[in-house]
Amino acid sequence: MRHRALVTGGSGGIGSAIVRRLLSMDMEVHIFDIAEEPLRDICAATGAIGHRVDVADYIAVEQAVADIKDKHGPVDVLVNNAGITRDAFVHKMSFEQWNQVIQVNLTSVFNTVRATAASMRELGWGRIVNISSMNGLRGQFGQANYSAAKAGMIGFTKTIAQEGASKGITANCIAPGFILTEMTGAMKPEILEQELTKIPMGRLGLVDDIAAAVAFLVKDESSFITGQVLSVNGGQYM
């Protein structure tokens, strides 16, 4: 059976690497993203199927997943990668900054799982991989919203892992460390050097490091791994 994957935030650096890796595994890959031009570009470059969807919108996600099922078949591999930052110290953080990050980074995970879980249960097979963060494990100055959302993702994942286990569904988190993307690549060299001194492996992570971890967790051979957090951070946080 050919698997059908859904990747949220699939047009960015980490997301597009995940999309490419899943396609290389002969999966049909769908992308939910709100960025129209990058979404169009990644689909044109890879053959993935794009859907312009606000993942924080429950109804939009429900309808888009139903449309995929009607036209292509049910999603059985779900990768929740969409995320944003709105950094500020908590005593200066606006409710809007808090709420935007919680909605996009955490509520979206409920939205997509809620929309796909029933089909996975019917199939008797499913893989859910949620991209959390090192900062969801340790916290981070100026990221109360982001760290809370990523920590909440871990608790949510452990719960759905228990709920789906008897139906052949696994659910795991990946917690990336400092990954070299277009955004981090634009940072000042001295800041990048400071980060490097904190990483025992002596290099920044690559988007392909995260994609490889996703590929491992969605394979049939990983069927006995569920409810776990796989840290991909070069030893920066253990």
Strand order of the largest sheet: 3-2-1-4-5-6-9
- Write down the CATH class: Alpha Beta
**Outline type:** globular
Question: For the report, how would you describe the main beta sheet?
Answer: 7 strands, parallel
CATH architecture: 3-Layer(aba) Sandwich
Write the layout of secondary structure elements.
Blueprint: E1 4-8, H1 13-24, E2 28-33, H2 36-46, E3 49-52, H3 58-71, E4 77-80, H4 95-123, E5 126-131, H5 134-138, H6 144-164, E6 169-176, E7 179-180, H7 182-185, H8 189-196, E8 205-206, H9 207-218, E9 229-232
Parallel strand pairs: 1-2, 1-4, 2-3, 4-5, 5-6, 6-9, 7-8
Helix pairs in contact: 1-9, 3-4, 4-6
What does this structure look like?
The chain has one domain (4-225): NAD(P)-binding Rossmann-like Domain (Rossmann fold), CATH 3.40.50.720. It has 9 helices and 9 strands. The strands form 2 sheets. It has a 7-stranded parallel β-sheet with strand order 3-2-1-4-5-6-9, sandwiched between helices. Strands 7-8 form a two-stranded parallel sheet. The protein has 238 residues and is α/β, with parallel strands linked by helices. The termini are far apart. The radius of gyration is 17 Å and the shape is globular. It has helices at residues 13-24, 36-46, 58-71, 95-123, 134-138, 144-164, 182-185, 189-196, 207-218, and strands at residues 4-8, 28-33, 49-52, 77-80, 126-131, 169-176, 179-180, 205-206, 229-232. The mean pLDDT is 96.
